[in-house]
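Notebook entry, structure prediction.
Reason for the run: the old model in the group folder had no record of what sequence produced it. Starting over properly, with the input documented here first.
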Amino acid sequence: MTRAYLALAAICIIWGTTYTAIKFCVRDFPPFLLVGIRQTSAGVLLLVLALASGKAVWPGRQYTARQMLTGLATITGGNGFITWGMQYVSSGLAAIIGSLTPVMVVLFSLAMQNKERINARIVAGVLLGFGGLGVIFSDGWQDFLKSEYRWGIAGCFASCCTWSLGTVMAKRWNSPAVSPILNAGLQITAGGLGGLILSLLFDKSLVIRHSVNGWLAMVYLITIGSALAFTLYMYALKHLSATVSSLYTYINPVVAILLGWMLLGESLTPLTVAGMVVTIVGVWLVNLGQRQ
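New structure, fully documented this time:
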């Protein structure tokens, strides 16, 4: 259990940095093509590593099909829509919408009658966490009224819903007997291929502007942001509930703000600190609810 929480902590930090890397990449790559290249490359890398280890046994067709379907939800939908939506919305607004992920995970768990039990402490913690981030990014609420943000808002909401659905599917369908590396490889590869198809359908152009920063960001996203972080996510899901595993969306912004304050001299207002406290209390309540 301790290793699972350490994996979740690493996810909080890694995925907190990918927003910046994506901002660099979308300057040079069409959004869905970016998702396709990034995730397909990371998925193939993981599959090669899993098979080269000699310990991974390729699962049956039904299991593989379910993993691919999960990857289409989490990667093609979740990662694809947020990458597309971040072209049009502010980071504060994206953070507010993204913080709905644990709420959606709870709703999908109930709708799909998942084995995980949802109690009052978990629900209260999820709502507190969302409220805390709403306070931290209070300026972002104004952006909901900007008409030019409507498509970006729709993309971020679609990302939140599909990623949450994929998380619940993964928790329900991932077998403990299958390596997290193989599960991650199957899901990311399928999701990346889905991104390439969406690129052909929806990207306005398939032209890549080549730059050093863009390709360095791409390499980071492939190796650390996808291959490593998604494997850690599969490991966390194996040992923790879907709701707890999705709490990284609450911790990522807190980590980013604290790092900005400590390393870059950015301001830290009393309102922001209050929001962080509320968010952390929410995370604590969810964990308490899981133990119950």
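Summary: The two ends are 15 Å apart (CA to CA).
The old model has been moved to the deprecated folder.
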